Amino acid sequence: MVNNIPLEYCPGNKWVFLNELRGVEEQLVSGSRSADAIMLLDACIRDFVESDFAITKASSLTIPDREIVLTALYENTYGPKIESTVKCRECNQPFDIDFILSDLIESLKPKQINERKEADNYYVFTTDSGISFRMCTGDDELAVMGMEPKQAEEEIISRCLIKGNRENARKEIPKVMSQLAPLIDLDIDTICPDCETGQKFHFNLQSYLLNSIIRDKKLLTSEIHQLAIHYGWGLNEILYLPRSIRYNYLSILETG
Known about the structure:
Layout: E1 2-6, E2 15-19, H1 23-26, H2 34-44, E3 45-46, H3 63-78, E4 81-87, E5 94-100, H4 101-108, E6 116-119, E7 122-126, E8 132-134, H5 138-143, H6 149-160, E9 161-163, H7 166-180, E10 185-191, E11 198-204, H8 205-231, H9 235-239, H10 243-255
Antiparallel strand pairs: 1-2, 2-3, 4-5, 6-7, 7-8, 8-9, 10-11
Helix pairs in contact: 6-7, 8-10
């Protein structure tokens, strides 16, 4: 299954073709950093259609657009619901929480969008004080890998600033970016059902998705073995099966 995912934070009605996750992509995931997310999406984004509207390089996506694509990948792979188990900070008992991802995203959407203009394949936003900037992209993040946090922040501001006082930009741009495009990285209020203590559950979409794939990857070797034994398929044949089809065959084997 291939999904056409429209993007929101780059001009020109751009979109990506997103392929269903396969074993060959699952094997790539070993961490939950931005670089890991970009590598995974590069492997999942299809480039079989030549179009000026298609984005084929994951690092060129703005961070909020990357989250749109990661959301689609999560929902294609795991469904609409987020499910997790947390341990109560007071009574130390585990309890389950769940919510619908699309509902959370809808609650985070800004009430209004600041005026934006198109320039050099980016949307340029201007703050009330006259500072103009573009959204941070994966290319920006990759460019500062290995830098100390403060140095990386300075470099990101330099790359995203279009016009305005640099000192003011350092204070304003991160705040305005988060208002224009809130990331799915937040604390969610929960209550322990045993002791009724209120507490926070931190949810980061990128980390949750990538760690879910890493968790499932532990079963992949066993799944490959079962399919190879029963169907006589080679390693590459199994790894290149879409995940849903692989699971369908495994379900047939389990039910006899």
